[in-house]
Amino acid sequence: MSTELSESQDLNGLEQATDGTSRLTDICSGTVGNSMASIAEYYAGKSVLITGATGFMGKVLVEKLLRSCPEVKALYILVRPKAGQSMQQRVSDMMKCKLFDRVREDNPDFYQKIIPISSELTQPGLAISPEDVEKLSACINIVFHCAATIRFDEPLKHALQLNVIATQQLLSLAHQMHHLEAFIHISTAYANCNRKHIDEVIYPPPVEPKKLIESLEWMDDGIVRDITPRLISDRPNTYTYTKALAEYVVQQEQHRLNIGIIRPSIVGASWQEPFPGWIDNFNGPSGVFIAAGKGILRTMRANNDAVADLIPVDVVINLTLAAGWYTAVHRLVNGKTPGSLSRCEWLILGREGGRNPLEQAFRRPNANITSNYLINQYWILVSHKFPALIYDLILRLTGQKPQMMRIFNRLHKAIGLLEYFSSQDWEWNSENMSMLMSQLTPEDRKTFNFDVRQLNWPEYIENYCIGTKKYVLNEDMSDIPAARQHLRKLRNIRYTFNTLLVVFIWRVFIARSQMARNIWYFVVSLCFKFLSYFRASSTLTN
Ligand SMILES: CCCCCCCCCCCCCCCCCCCC(=O)SCCNC(=O)CCNC(=O)[C@H](O)C(C)(C)COP(=O)(O)OP(=O)(O)OC[C@H]1O[C@@H](n2cnc3c(N)ncnc32)[C@H](O)[C@@H]1OP(=O)(O)O
Ligand SMILES: NC(=O)C1=CN([C@@H]2O[C@H](COP(=O)(O)OP(=O)(O)OC[C@H]3O[C@@H](n4cnc5c(N)ncnc54)[C@H](OP(=O)(O)O)[C@@H]3O)[C@@H](O)[C@H]2O)C=CC1
């Protein structure tokens, strides 16, 4: 606990600081260890409600619960119909996913424990039927709230509707649950990214959510768009802003519910479970790896002195399940996932490239990270825009539709949105997470491992890139020789292009002027002298 805060503790274990922050403390700390059931024993016979189960983290949560807590009674998942697919169709497709192969092997009837509930979170009452509300009220023991819009460019009204209002409505539903033991809310480590040092506290919200909701209700979309930058102020996007408001909304309920808040940083592919490298989306680093692997992204701004707070999805889910177990008994857990115990350097992220090449690359992968704005702009011009222009020109000349400039414009928009996070460094406190780790039995520490100190980052990043190839792009590993052949072809094209460029420059600029020729001969002879000097000195040292 920070000494500069003068805090008072109430009977519920909630501490209120004079600066408006609130900290959840464990009023029974030190008593857990031997007296508590193991995590799998705790979940045995429990009914769990999960929102966002069709999303990236939700799917891993469902899989891990079914595999490592086989006695769990039922998983109720809130799902909406989407893109012309019914709820049932989506759930049955989800269960066919490769992610569930291991659990399928252990128990081919695992799907019987999954009970889909139709719900559209942006609708009043979450659009859950009265019968389903009754059913959930009667049986749910633990809620994991993962659903959110994670888009950085989401219009404020929609982000507020989903990330804040839906959370409020879910909390109202939770109040009706007769046997609820814990409500775990998945937030983000960047909810308070306007601060450099982030503690395990809920900071005062940028605005009272109720007032904001009331004000935006009558405003049309144009007005909301105009005032959004003023509202989000020193936060980079509506996502982090609404996630901060959601934390506050959740915290308001902590007198009445056992609340746990998890703040993952940048969630990446799985480290170990159910198998290394599982990933299913283009978000954050995945999109960057893919764009760099396809040879489209050649430069990006990131601070090489900072660290990339990347955390594998299986680690986040293990921590989340441990937090559910602990919160149910001890009214705690408000913590960041443990990226800070072992943090990955940006350079390690940038190094992976050509080992497992992607199919049909646009250019040879050769991405650079720089923290300098002007250098980055220079490379954007030379390595992105110029080749795109040439490629589009060739497409036009061959009667095809130009497309490369459009792709690069989208890439620049996406990378621009990520730069805020890759160019800065934050300090997080993760004492609650360390405390939680100390409370696990040795067996649970293995089964629900969230200690990333043993993680070998270069190996993890390599598996991550293979995962994007296999599971996001659906490329076959057996095509790697063909992909390498394609890269060799691209190299030869580049050599030919560079040779033609030199000949062109010679013919147009140098051959016509005596002075330019003299300068050219001088530069070439200087290069030769340097080369022979280095060759001689390397022979001497050998
Ligand atoms: C050069 C360096 C080498 C590599 C070294 C560095 C690597 C690491 C970089 C790490 C970057 C730092 C990341 C920080 C992130 C901080 C995150 C905070 C954590 C969180 O709390 S939440 C999770 C983060 N959220 C996101 O990442 C969402 C960001 N995305 C968006 O907001 C939108 O997607 C975006 C970028 C605004 C684009 O919107 P739009 O143009 O409308 O496109 P869509 O998203 O609708 O996608 C349309 C379509 O395209 C597919 N797609 C998306 N990206 C790619 C891609 N890179 N390549 C190919 N295809 C892509 C997408 O799947 C859609 O397809 P559909 O078939 O579904 O239509
Ligand atoms: N991924 C990351 O790097 C990080 C994520 N987080 C947090 O983790 C949580 C999960 O993120 P992640 O799994 O990556 O996100 P995804 O975008 O993969 O999943 C979002 C989930 O929310 C559901 N959802 C969205 N809108 C609605 C709606 N209107 N009604 C019903 N369901 C809806 C989606 O359902 P559908 O399939 O129907 O669209 C999907 O299941 C979020 O709270 C996010 O803030 C925090 C830090 C980092």
From TrEMBL:
Spell out the reaction equation it catalyses.
16-methylheptadecanoyl-CoA + 2 NADPH + 2 H(+) = 16-methylheptadecan-1-ol + 2 NADP(+) + CoA; (9Z,12Z)-octadecadienoyl-CoA + 2 NADPH + 2 H(+) = (9Z,12Z)-octadecadien-1-ol + 2 NADP(+) + CoA; 18-methylnonadecanoyl-CoA + 2 NADPH + 2 H(+) = 18-methylnonadecan-1-ol + 2 NADP(+) + CoA; octadecanoyl-CoA + 2 NADPH + 2 H(+) = octadecan-1-ol + 2 NADP(+) + CoA
Key words of the record: Lipid biosynthesis, Lipid metabolism, Membrane, NADP, Oxidoreductase, Peroxisome, Transmembrane, Transmembrane helix
What is one term from the GO cellular component aspect held by the record? Answer: peroxisomal membrane
Q: Domain named Thioester reductase (TE): which ranges? A: 50-319
Compartments it resides in: Peroxisome membrane
Membrane-topology descriptor: Single-pass membrane protein
Spell out where the chain crosses the membrane. Answer: 495-513, 519-536
Give one Pfam family, short name only: NAD_binding_4
Question: Which GO biological process entries does UniProt record here?
Answer: lipid biosynthetic process; long-chain fatty-acyl-CoA metabolic process
The cross-references to InterPro entries, in alphabetical order and at most eight, read: FAR, FAR_C, FAR_NAD-bd, NAD(P)-bd_dom_sf
- What's a Gene Ontology MF term here? alcohol-forming long-chain fatty acyl-CoA reductase activity
Domain Fatty acyl-CoA reductase C-terminal residues, every copy: 384-475
Under Enzyme Commission nomenclature, its number is: 1.2.1.84
Identify the main location: membrane
Q: Which domain of life is it from?
A: Eukaryota
Q: Which PANTHER family match?
A: FATTY ACYL-COA REDUCTASE 2, MALE STERILITY PROTEIN 2-RELATED
User: Which protein family is named in the record?
Assistant: Belongs to the fatty acyl-CoA reductase family.
- Protein's job: Catalyzes the reduction of fatty acyl-CoA to fatty alcohols.
Listed name of the protein = Fatty acyl-CoA reductase
Gene that this polypeptide is encoded by:
FAR2
